[in-house]
Amino acid sequence: MFPKLSDDSLLDAYRSAIRLGLDWEFVRMLRSEIRRRCLKLPEGREF
């Protein structure tokens, strides 16, 4: 889904999306990609 985005950038984008209260669907899409890459979700609020 985000093949050119580094793992660190993906996790930063997820944290920022949560912090800024961005659209739930966008956050869900980021979270799906994090799980697809077998990365650990950052601590904090989850949906």
TrEMBL record:
Q: Which InterPro entries match?
A: Sda, Sda_sf
Record-given protein name: Sporulation histidine kinase inhibitor Sda
Tell me the superkingdom of the source.
Bacteria
Q: By its UniProt entry, which Pfam families does this protein fall under?
A: Sda
Q: Which organism is it from?
A: Cohnella pontilimi
